[in-house]
Amino acid sequence: MDEPDLSRWIAAFRGPLIGLLASWRGNWRDAEELAADVFAEAWLSRARFDGDAADIERAGAWLRGIAFRVQAAAARREERRAAASLDGVEVAQPEAEVDERRELLDAAFAKLAAPQQSILRMFYLEETSAREVAALLDITTKAAEERLRAARNELRELVQREARQRERGHSAQGARA
Amino acid sequence: MSEPSEPDLQLETELRQKLAPHRPDPEAFERRVRERIRERENQPRVETREPSRFVRWAAAVLPPDIGLALLAKQGGFLSTLALPVLVVASGFGAFIAGKRSIEKSARESAPPTAPEPNRWKMAKARSLQRESLIHVLLQFGVLLVIAAPLLFGGARAFDIVALLLAASMGLLAFEVRWLARAGLMRRGSVARMCSGLLCSVYNMCFLWGSAFGLVDPSSNVGPCWSAGLMLAAITLCALAMWHERAASRWNTGLTIGWCLCVFLALTPALSPSSPGYLRRYIRDFAADTRTLQGWRELGFAGEALRAAGEDLPHLAHVRTAVDRAIESGDAAHPGIWTAAARLGLIDDAHWAQLAQRKGERYKLDQILALDGPLRLLDYDEYQLHMLLATRELDAAQREHLARRVAAAWPRTPAHGRLETADMCVRLWSLLCRSDQIEAHGPEARALLDEHWISGEERKLFAKIGGFTSDPAKFRTSFDDTTYAAVDLIAHVGRSNGVDPFLLRGHARSQAERFSLWIASISQLQVSSHAAWLRLEREIGLPQRSWLERVLAERVLLATLLTLLLCVVALRAAPSRAELVRRGLA
pLDDT grade, residue B92 (50/70/90)? Predict the structure, then answer.
């Protein structure tokens, strides 16, 4: 493994790894810091990686193992500190204008199951292919695609349901008024 | 991946916009990584104990699963790697040695002569004696297959099957050698001998294995393909016997009939996990709200199809039955409401109507008013669906409910802890409390490990590869507990102690355990089919390299090699037409 390999790994796995760590940690900022730690650790212990650096599956499995360790160590360090919730951080982000559609999406996203939130974060944080996500999750590319599809369908349904509920709420308010 | 539709594209764009604030600057990120590398390169590193050079080399060149297993248990090199390789190697070794032996037998066989009645009679009698002896020997193989889980652990039973197949190749070569020496090496005799041998091997390896619930721990295709191929080969041998006039039409018909019956009755479906079975179950479900039969499984089937991203079949008949039961005030079993809720069949108006009933209203009031652990049985899940659909809960009430669910989390040893944990996770999921699910993830994974029936379980008749409801009392897997465990894995992830391939093997063997004879009670298979589908499509299985995949199919390989050796033996023996041409028939 040499310098260009590290750059390639960072380019390929940065998005999904931060997405994965964000799901584990519940905090985007920590996730980004930890992801940087993971890549640094991968480089420093590269002597133990005997496979082909161009092999995405091997690289993904290797990074996932390091991510587990780094995350566990960070969790131990911060055992007493309550981690800020993901939703809190997301709300705290400066938003130019939060339209109704975005609110619906946020509400629906929060209702998704944790693994579905996780896979959506991994895919959509950056432009990532299913292969890298699958390698990090240690599943087949097909399974990753299936998960993504299911998560997207669920999210779409939740958005629609949320919209219907709000519509009903508005009409009830209107009727009361 | 298929092209996303228009609404998908809009959703994708919105998701990207939503996550945009968290997207790192690529250059700054890489700069930060390199800074950290520089900082840490100057710090002394705490060296952990390294595996031996050999183990590290082996872990690097071998597939990831095997490599990681090697690194994890350095002492277990033989058990991790050597046995599968040895089993495959012994299959190929037996085939090559058998083929050479058969070819040599064909070359050195006594020259065929015109059959003399007395000589033929004696030779045939001796041949039958010898074959009988071999079949008696093979019966000891049956005992070995049955006792394998007790002697070596359940996961090794199919290695024994593969080794027995290799041994049967040796017996085939030995029989051919004897026929050749006796001058009886004719295609008809060889076909009869192959047919008898394959029947015994089928009974020994597959029929008894299936009867005793052996689980193939690694195969992708499952043992049914091997069993089906074996039956097809027996049928072909029977046809060859008839063609060579070594068996009467009746005998041939009986053999083929036996194969067909066994195939239809005892050899399960040859398809991989597919949503078709579940879809059919839902479509054909007789929605009778006066009986609970099949409703729970209906919920499992619907849940699995949705989790796998499949469309549900038309559910109007079920919806109508449920709506009618609510409207008419029928006192249906709560399991029916729960199944309907899981399938999303009850709309808000009907929930409201159901919640108007005195008993239901009381239950909802109690859920909100009481403080202790919220212990809902699995068929009472509908109460939370109903609560959320009919009452506007504020944040404090939702928090109160989440706390009540947390208080119900199974911490003390008891029967059904895994199911309780799954119920808690389901309730949190309904309350949109993924933080609680994540917080309880480590405990849930520890529970999964505790209830897992591993392949090392050394017990006769124990079903390995699934989950038990009470690890202290029952060391065997149960279907419903296994489904609950799969649901739990889908929420909190798989624990390290659970072998996903063995779990898949278990779900498959349970899904295929009944056949045509008792297809009418098909709901017994639904939870296993649902667990199988969710495991493959929702949770996903780790990737395997080509070497791992080859090693995983060692039983199929050994079966194919055995059948190939039969073909070699048949081709090496002169056919009747050839003998007729030479005037020796």
Answer: very high
Structure-block tokens of residue B282: 């839902």
Residue type at position A83: A
Q: Give the number of other Cβ atoms within 10 Å of residue B111's Cβ.
A: 6
DSSP summary character for residue B217: S
If you measure CA to CA, which chain A residue comes closest to B437? Answer: A114
Cβ pair B24:A18 closer than 8 A: yes
Output the CA torsion B303→B304→B308→B310 (10° steps): -70
Of the partner residues B21, B33, B308, the one whose CB lies closest to the CB of residue A40: B33
Q: Two tokens at B510?
A: 């349970």
Number of domains in chain A: 1
pLDDT per residue as tens digits for the range B158-201: 888 888 889 889 988 988 888 888 777 788 888 888 888 888 88
Shortest CA distance to B529 belongs to which of B551, B503, B543, B510?
B510
Cα within 13 Å of Cα(B149), Cβ side: 23
Out of B29, B429, B490, closest to residue A10 by CB: B29
Contact A25, A54 (CB under 8 A): no
Residue A131, chain B, CB below 8 Å: the answer is: no
ipTM beyond cut 0.90:
no
Provide the 3-class DSSP secondary structure of residue B376. Answer: coil
Which of B396, B303, B292 has the alpha carbon at shortest distance from B341? B303
Name the burial class of residue B135, with classes exposed (0-12), middle (13-18) and buried (19+) by CB atoms within 10 angstroms of its CB. middle
| Inter-residue long-range contacts of B46-51, CB under 8 Å, 24+ positions, other chains counted | B50/A48
Distance between CA atoms of B293 and B291, rounded to whole angstroms? 6
Amino acid at B125: A
Residues 6 or more apart whose CB falls under 8 angstroms from that of A19 comprise A31, A118, A121, A122, A123, A124, A125
B8·A51 Cβ contact <8 A: no
Which DSSP state fits B331?
-
> Which residue bears the tokens 């991994």?
A122
Residues from chain A that touch B12, judged by Cβ atoms under 8 A, are: 124, 152
Q: Do A143 and B41 touch (CB under 8 A)?
A: no
> Using the 8-state DSSP alphabet, how is residue B517 labeled?
G
Contact assignment for A113 to B490 by CB distance below 8 Å: yes
Angle at the Cα of A140 (from A136 to A145), degrees rounded to 5?
A: 90
Q: What angle do CA B471, B477, B483 make, to 5 degrees?
A: 105
Structure token pair of residue A62: 């290797």
Domain that holds residue A151: 3-87+96-176
Query: Which range has the worst mean pLDDT, B291-300, B403-412, B453-462?
Result: B453-462
pLDDT tens, B49-81?
Answer: 445 555 555 555 555 445 545 544 444 455 555
- Tell me the chain B residues in contact with residue A124 when contact means C-beta distances shorter than 8 Å: 12, 15-16, 18-19
Which of these, A89, A105, A114, A106, lies nearest to A28 by C-alpha position? A89
Helix/strand/coil percentages in chain B, nearest 5: 70, 0, 30
Closest to B368 (Cα-Cα) out of B343, B326, B403 = B403
Asked if A98 reaches chain B (Cβ–Cβ under 8 Å), the answer is no
Which phi and psi (to 5°) does residue B467 adopt?
-125, 145
Residue B452 has what DSSP assignment?
B
State the nearest Cα–Cα gap between A67 and chain B, in angstroms: 14
